[in-house]
Amino acid sequence: MSQLPSCSQCQSEFVYEDRDMYVCPECGHEWPQSGDASADDQAQIKDANGNPLQDGDTVTVIKDLKVKGSSSVVKVGTKVKNIRLVDGDHDIDCKIDGIGAMKLKSEFVKKA
């Protein structure tokens, strides 16, 4: 029987295999079997201050943002709840009260 690695997040030894991923049941961390955990960290989306963002986070806008095709502006300090991270140039999908669904760049927000 092969020796499974311990979790890189919590150092738990109770790691199990799920298809092509390793999974830690204690902290919920998952990482690919063929690669290392550092590749997962590089792909992480970060805010303007370098804090990692996750789905469901609340962020605050740090700069006035003009809404394309409209005369509206998203003001500095606007709180955006329950963000969803996506791939692409604009990496945050969200709904802003009074404006509606928008895509934001992570460089213009900070974690609240």
From TrEMBL:
InterPro entries: YjdM, YjdM_C, YjdM_N
Domain Protein YjdM C-terminal: 45-112
Protein YjdM N-terminal domain mapped to chain residues: 3-32
Stored SUPFAM superfamilies: Prokaryotic SH3-related domain, Zinc beta-ribbon
Gene3D superfamilies reported for this sequence: 2.20.25.10, SH3 Domains
Region of interest: Disordered: 32-55
NCBIfam families documented for this protein: phnA
Family to which the UniProt record says this protein belongs: Belongs to the YjdM family.
PANTHER family tied to this protein: PROTEIN YJDM, PROTEIN YJDM-RELATED
Name of the protein in its database record: Alkylphosphonate utilization protein
